[in-house]
Structures are given as C-alpha cells and as structure tokens.
Design brief:
The protein is mostly helical and 230 residues long. The protein starts with 21 loop residues before the first helix and ends in a 6-residue tail after the last helix.
Length: 230
C-alpha cells in the first residue's frame, strides 16, 4: 500500500513567524531582489514571502517606492568611504567614492534604475552624503555651492550607473557602440568638420577615465560657480 501523505501541520505546530518590523521586511525584500530581481520586490510578493497580508506591511512602508528606497539604503552600506579620510588629492578621493557608489548600483541593474527616483534616508545614505560634503569642504567649495553640487554629483553617478547597467543587459550593446564609433570616425569633413577633426577622440578613454573626468568637471564647476542670489 502506498504510504499516506503526512497530515498538514496546524498553525500551533508550525514554527513561529518572526515579528514583523522594518528590518525584517527590508531583509526579505533584499532576499527577493537577489534571487528574482527588483521588479519582483512588490508589497504583494513581500507579503507572500513573510506569510502575512499586504495591509500589514503598510504600517512600516507607505508604498513600493519607499520599499525600493529602503532596499537601496541597505546596499549603500557597500559603498567604500575610506577615501574620505585617506591621503591624496581631494578631487581624486571624491571620484573614488562616487565610482564605488556607481559600482554598487551597476551590480544590480534594477536597483540602479530605481535609484533615479528612490530617496533613501537611512544611516548609509547620510554617511555617503556626509563623506562627499566633507571632501567638498576640504577642497574649499563654499557651503552653498556644495549643497547643490552634491546633488549634481549623485545625479550624474546614478544616471551613469543606470545607463551602463541597462547596456550591460543588452546583448547588442557592444555592436551598437562599435557602429556609433564607426559613424563618428567616418563623418565627412565637408559637412561635419568638427566631428571629423576629433572623431576618434569622441569615443576614447575607458569608462572609469571618463567618469573621473566628469566628476572633476562637476566639482570644478561647483568650486567656481556661485549660486544666483535668491
């Protein structure tokens, strides 16, 4: 005779669920993101993971956007802030911090795109912000210009990560890049003299070289461009 399947356990016999809380919810969201991608990190999917109803999650998080911001905050802990207090040129150290931030987002394409609109506000985000502001202050950037400059730096870094990670998911991205380089290289001087003059250089440099130059350009602009009076 075939063995009878085991009888389902009653609620009383099941292991007790961990108490709901912000940390428990975010930890579950991170697990889902790692295995299924950020697009699957929804209140409904999270409720299933935690064996609860979606309504109970709204006590801790207002919506999916806030949930994604909390996941982003968790990953910001991996940003390398050691250059903030290291020796060396402050601009180079600032670029190193921002490149580490880009790298964290680049490793998680969905997170990089979400970071364009997500607004984390936890300890890791504050540490990143404080570190950037400390380096701008070390470089003599006036406080008012630093306040706006840090926003531009993070926007550039986030947009770069989102763009590069999206291209990384596209199998045809390398072919598209080669085609664009060829188009620029072959632009006729008669109709496009400026492109023809620097066509090779338009696509030159490694991704990190170009990114470091971009951050230095933004910092130099913040250093020398006063804010308009109110």
């Amino acid at each position: 005779m075939a063995p009878h399947p085991p009888a389902p356990k009653s609620r009383r016999e099941r292991p007790a669920k961990p108490a709901l809380g912000h940390e428990v919810i975010v930890a579950a969201a991170v697990r889902i993101m790692r295995s299924e991608g950020l697009q699957r990190v929804t209140m409904r999917r999270l409720a299933t993971e935690l064996d609860t109803g979606p309504a109970s999650l709204y006590v801790y998080l207002a919506n999916t956007a806030e949930l994604h911001a909390a996941v982003l905050e968790e990953f910001l802990g991996a940003v390398d802030l050691r250059p903030v207090t290291a020796p060396g040129d402050w601009r180079d150290r600032l670029a190193s911090v921002l490149i580490s931030y880009v790298g964290v987002l680049f490793d998680h394409p969905g997170l990089a795109r979400s970071a364009l609109v997500a607004r984390p506000r936890g300890a890791h985000y504050l540490a990143l912000l404080e570190g950037i502001l400390a380096l701008l202050d070390e470089g003599g950037v006036p406080a008012a210009q630093a306040a706006w400059g840090v926003d531009v730096l993070l926007q550039v870094a986030t947009a770069t990560a989102a763009e590069q990670s999206t291209r990384g998911e596209d199998a045809a991205a390398a072919d598209d890049h080669s085609a664009l380089a060829r188009t620029l290289r072959e632009a006729p001087a008669a109709t496009h003299p400026r492109i023809a003059a620097i066509g090779e250089d338009l696509m030159s440099g490694t991704a990190e070289q170009r990114l470091r130059w971009t951050f230095r350009a933004v910092v130099n602009g913040a250093l020398t461009t006063p804010r308009d009076p109110a």
